[in-house]
Amino acid sequence: MPPTSNEWLDPAAAAPDATARFYDAVAPGYDAQVDGRTDVDNLRLREAFCQRVAAAAGPGASILDFGCGTGIDAAWYAARGHRVHAYDLSPGMMAVLRERCSGEIAAGRITTAAGPLEAMERALGAGDPVAAIAANFAVLNHVQDPGPLLQRLAVHLQPGSALVANVLNPFYGRDMRHGWWWRSALRSLGQGAIRMEGRVTTYRHFIGSLRRAAAPAFAIESVCTADGRSLFGSLGANHLFVQFRRRS
């Protein structure tokens, strides 16, 4: 579906970016893989994350869904009265979102941008900053150095408001049983994150590294698992919820 008047699609979105190409390729089957009927854990994870973001934003407030994927979260927010700015690096993922959320887009409840980060920044333009930013399902783990990205996102967030990120736990107990985790950890010494090679590269950032990267625009307000356990009880959780607070 071609972009409507409230959507942006950057012509540079077709640039040879490995992460974008990966998600373009998996977009048609992404929902079945991540939120399939048998994957109850991911469904609970998504619900807990969306509830946390909605609470951080406040009733009816605007949300930037950063790394929005196929639009499941964006549709959830819009159905509960939020105005959503949905952005994703992958045009393929955005195509699925535009089909899923065509009614919300037509009504102006969801606006979209796809491609390089500049497309999102142009779409947001000089409009009012959003009340919350959501980055679900390890979006920040695709970024080797999240510091510059967090500084750019801060410009579009109201002072005192929250950015909520779902990040991969660098010390997930099940992964630490395997030799590949230890080999990756040893290769990544001193880098602030454990670099994991695969079809797409991810960086499992340490919380201390995220804290330093977030300054001076953000402070980390809380770190917990989806069921509310603190960082010290997180070995059994593959995902952590990190809430950043925008400094005034």
UniProtKB/TrEMBL annotation:
Alphabetical keyword list: Methyltransferase, Transferase
- InterPro entries the UniProt entry points to: SAM-dependent_MTases_sf
* GO biological process terms, semicolon-separated: methylation
Q: Name one Pfam family in it.
A: Methyltransf_23
Gene3D superfamilies on file:
Vaccinia Virus protein VP39
Q: Which residues form a coiled coil?
A: none
Can you tell which superkingdom this protein's organism belongs to?
A: Bacteria
Please name the PANTHER family in this protein's record: TRANS-ACONITATE 2-METHYLTRANSFERASE-RELATED
What's this protein's name?
Methyltransferase domain-containing protein
Its source organism is Roseateles agri
